[in-house]
């Protein structure tokens, strides 16, 4: 698929998830998991006991907790890429305090509406949600102390451009902390090519070595993986894309889907 077609799929799918979260209960067949066969919650970490947690903003779409390793400090200016309903923004806001600022960027209209709905229920004046594309961030150079992102860059067709933009908007002393999905080995063709699995963060994943290589090639230094875990995609999901033979071969192989949380500094 072309890049613009993939973006259309992602925008449509996450728009549906945001809309469903507004009008339906979590126990519904179209709750936070969405109405598709893809269960996005298989990647998710538990946020419920973290300071600043806002349950209305948690659509269970992450694959890590980037704020845990981001080194965010009081009064920092933080950018969350692919901020969705605002989950990580509310966590980050509890760390930066009243003198800091948190900006959430998302290109899905429905997610922006959901995030602002959640924000309007608070008295917070230092969170802002901006609509935009991670490949062309509509914000100035050298603005942020920390950039975070949670299971989103897999959805971006041009990851080199995305990390280039992250480098651009970071201050010279800034750094990022990103939770994302990477691969070890080559996925079966069905999983690689299916657009819905791309929107579910699987088919958009790169080999871990290639992912880290892009980060290094964009000029970042001190690249470090803080957390890594294997993601288990349930059989009832994989059978939508794989034959019985392909599924058995996949189980026997050493191919793995992993979530990683990685940090890196902007080189001066």
Instruction: Give the overall silhouette.
Output: globular
Total domain modules:
1
CATH architecture title: 3-Layer(aba) Sandwich
Poorly predicted runs are: 22-42
If you average the pLDDT, what whole number results? 83
Helix content: 25-40%
Distance between the termini: 37 Å
- Beta strands, count: 8
CATH topology value: Rossmann fold
What's the helix count?
9
> For the record, what CATH class applies?
Alpha Beta
Q: Topology as H/E string?
A: HEHEHEEHEHHEHEHHE
The biggest beta sheet, please?
Answer: 8 strands, mixed
Strand content: 15-25%
CATH superfamily: Vaccinia Virus protein VP39
The assigned structural class equals: alpha/beta
Task: Compute the CA-based radius of gyration.
Answer: 18 Å
